[in-house]
Amino acid sequence: MEARDIKETRFLLGTIVEFTVYTDDESRALKAIAEAAQVMRDVEQAFTIFGVHDNSVKQFNRAKVGQVVVLQDEVDALLRLSLMIHQQTQGAFDPALGTLNQLWGFSGEIMPTQPPSQQHIQQALAKSGSRHVDSQGRGWVKQVQGLQLDFGAIAKGYAIDQGVKVLKKHGFHQAIINAGGDMMVLGTHGDKPWRIAIRHPRADQPLGWVEIDQDSSIVTSGDYERFYMYKGRRYHHILDPQTGKPSSASQSVTVIAANATLADAWSTALFVLGSKQGIDIVQKRKAMAALWVKADGSFRQTQGIELHHAPVTMRTN
After folding, report:
1. Of 72, 81, 106, 233, which residue has the fewest beta carbons closer than 10 angstroms?
2. pTM of the model
3. Secondary structure (3-state) at 147
């Protein structure tokens, strides 16, 4: 039997996750995909701040000021990584914006129709930010009441990486896990590179595509993912930790990195920073590349990302 794409989809992490394994062994691939999906579901349960399932993130978020909370091992490790990325991105990525994110409401079941008041934004900002999170022994404490962790900008990437580990464990090294546009690519597509389309933030056709022929993650953060229009202005879910409002520095940012955890977090941070600040930071980092669609619709990119352009049809919003 010749090798071909074995595909399965699951609803995980609040989005459609597509698993593609290039192989001639369908039954073994389906078994690996099922196991990978379960591991990703376990990650979702460990990090979610929604629903009735309890976890250590929710326990921290309920805790009082000064109360020590010991986080689950993988949550503890991802928080430490998140705080390091917070420093590396000059605060543009922040895992402690739960209160601010809830105020804006982009993760709720019903999309908001107008922005919160400046007074409410300032109140939420006072209860948000990694500066209010401290480690204490094996645990963590908050320094201000109401502060909440929210791993929404990194946990999806982390879940993808855990799913990829399962596929590799089963011996598959030509595959893709695509979680709503956040993806990890393994190897090649047979003897050819994988061709990955990049969405245009304001058009019906792709911005273009990139070819990937080695293990890499590619993640795009855009202002088109969760947004509404109010008085002619676009309000979206990628918040600037400094202003407490949706960042206006970019329309989208695509990041290629060694793994999906890093690509997920950095795409958010570089969206907030914009190309003017972000490009120098990226160029100093090995094995990372970025492409911005700037606020005015123009492009800027670092070395390491070759975009093959496609014709586009513009949308009106």
Report:
1. 233
2. 0.95
3. coil
